[in-house]
Amino acid sequence: MNITVITVGKIKEKFLRDAIDEYSKRLSRYCKLNIIEVQDEKTPDNASEKDEQIIKEKEGLGILKYVKDNMYVVALDLKGKMLSSEELSSFIKDLEVRGDSNLCFIIGGSIGISSPVLNRANYKLCFSKMTFPHQLMRVILLEQVYRGYRIMKGEPYHK
């Protein structure tokens, strides 16, 4: 399985980079992982709804530039479906069985994901009704994908 994570913004905090590196290393046993960072647009503190829409559209164009036709796209979205770790594991396994071997997760920027990106998504996934920093969400996503592979392979980890 080829897994691509397209995410808005760079990780500045060393502790987050270390966690991402660790889960990337662990995942290398199970899949080919590619993380693509799209430049984030600066959002002024007093940005209007229109300003935010323009920013999301710019970031969305940056995201869509890396989405290939053969990718099964999962957008992380607060309005998406919530899955347990076991259900995410089954979801990934089902994609592999169906022959969808190019899975792409999209993590938007601080103000969300543009409509064109959400429309391209094959699936919308919500990790929680709570809002997380998009930088931290990258760590959470990689940990859950790793957990999913451990579950799938019957290996100990998910307690």
Explained architecture:
- This is Ribosomal RNA large subunit methyltransferase H.
- Belongs to the RNA methyltransferase RlmH family.
- S-adenosyl-L-methionine binds at residues 76, 108, 127-132.
- It is a single chain.
- The chain has 159 residues and is α/β, with parallel strands linked by helices.
- It has one domain (2-152): Alpha/beta knot (3-Layer(aba) Sandwich).
- Helix content is 43%, strand content 22%.
- It is built from 5 helices and 5 strands, in the order βαβαβαβαβα.
- It has helices at 14-27, 49-64, 85-98, 115-120, 134-152, and strands at residues 2-8, 32-38, 72-82, 102-107, 123-126.
- It has a 5-stranded parallel β-sheet with strand order 2-1-4-3-5.
- Helix 3 (85-98) links the parallel strand 3 and strand 4.
- Helix 3 (85-98) crosses helix 5 (134-152).
- The longest helix is centred in the last third of the chain and has 19 residues, at 134-152.
- It is globular and about 50 Å long.
- The two termini are 25 Å apart.
Low-confidence blocks of residues: none
Radius of gyration: 15 Å
Instruction: Compute the number of strand runs.
Output: 5
Relative strand content: 15-25%
> Helices and strands: which structural class?
alpha/beta
User: What is the CATH superfamily?
Assistant: SPOUT methyltransferase, trefoil knot domain
User: From the 3D coordinates, which CATH architecture would you assign?
Assistant: 3-Layer(aba) Sandwich
Strand arrangement within the widest β-sheet reads 2-1-4-3-5
Shape: globular
Distance between the termini: 25 Å
Count helical runs. 5
What is the fold named in CATH at topology level?
Answer: Alpha/beta knot
Biggest sheet details: 5 strands, parallel
Question: Which whole number gives the mean pLDDT?
Answer: 94
Helix content: 40-55%
Structural domain count: 1
